[in-house]
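Protocol step 6 of 9: fold each sequence in the batch and record its structure tokens directly after the sequence line. For illustration, a two-sequence batch is reproduced in full.

Sequence one:
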Amino acid sequence: MALKNTYRRNVASDGKIEMNLQEFKKWLKRFDLDKDGKISKEELREAIRASGGGWFSRLKGSHGIKAADVNGNGYVDENEFKNLVEFAQRNLGVRII
């Protein structure tokens, strides 16, 4: 679970971290280092690593961008954010409520 260290208080009985959409966006925004409002592969990788993603944070970051970046520009912007949420729910042990 990549976000366990960040949101321990919201762990469901199935082990998934529960948060609302605003909490998820706020968490990701902390890793938007250049403050451009978009998430790059490197920024997503760092977010996953910093919150307990372990050895596979590089791979998970790459897969997350690939899954969410519809226009292929290398970033997840506001229009593609829904795709990143879906990826997080499938692959990062997160449930957006």
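Sequence two, same batch, same settings:
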Amino acid sequence: MSISVPIGVSVWPRPDAGNDVDEVVRLAEAARDTGVRSVWFGQKFDLDSLTLAAVVGRAVPGVEVGTSVVPINPRHPLVVAAQAQTAQAASGGRFRLGLGLGAPPLESAAFGIREDKPVRRLREYLIALRQAIEEGTVDVAGERVHARPPLPTTVHGGGNIPLLVAAMGPQALRATGELADGVLPFLAGPRTLASHIVPALERARPADPVRPLQVVAGVVAVVTDRAEEVRAEAARALSFYEQFDSYRAVLDREGVAHAIDVAVIGDEEYVTRGLRAYVDAGATELLVHQSDLAGPEDQLRTWKLLADLTA
């Protein structure tokens, strides 16, 4: 049994790691050696995902790297363009840049900022990123983004970076379809993917896009024989997302009450069926999150299944 799209995994250091970066490199090596094709890094307030992508891309040949995702606030697009090109050069062209609009309550608490026109900022941000990476100079004087660097922005070996956005709302999807290469939805179930996300992107796509559309569906999945126990743990971990309007909206579209209801946790057959539903809904790629919820043994078991499905 196989799935006809690539499957990657997000990795994060275990709480007892002595050195978080060493641990991420070790996990990336283990994922690659198991047969997983890509590893992705989230962004919190500690480890920097773009730096991790560069480090892992350099240290672990043979695996693609990506960010899922870098919030566009408060980082300026020129800063992100420089970091992204550095990661692309360090990885030898195996990097993808995943961006997100961010979580307003977290940004307000941490940075004292609140963006009242997030989609306008996203549009201007993507335009500036494209110019910085693909043209080597930027001329954007928008309502929310100003980018006019007096020096070139090109990093040799750092070009050709696919831009993906964790867009799920209608306006953000429209901007993503028009200006980015794809989408990185998380907690958006198969129904939402098929009826809302994929059609919105396809309607917004330009007639002659730079790259084929990438729909990288983020799915919480764990292969385990302790399904009920692990689901209980996952329910606690995922409840964090239910406080944010963007996630609440996609859960409502899916017709489920809680984030755990779109997680795929069970034996190999159960997880395979669950992942296949996302592919049938239009995903061109899968990104499995939080495969470590049941511990290292079941994480490795999960990775082996993912590798087998794409072999």
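Proceed to step 7 once all outputs are recorded. Observation for sequence two: The domain at 7-310 is CATH 3.20.20.30 (TIM Barrel).
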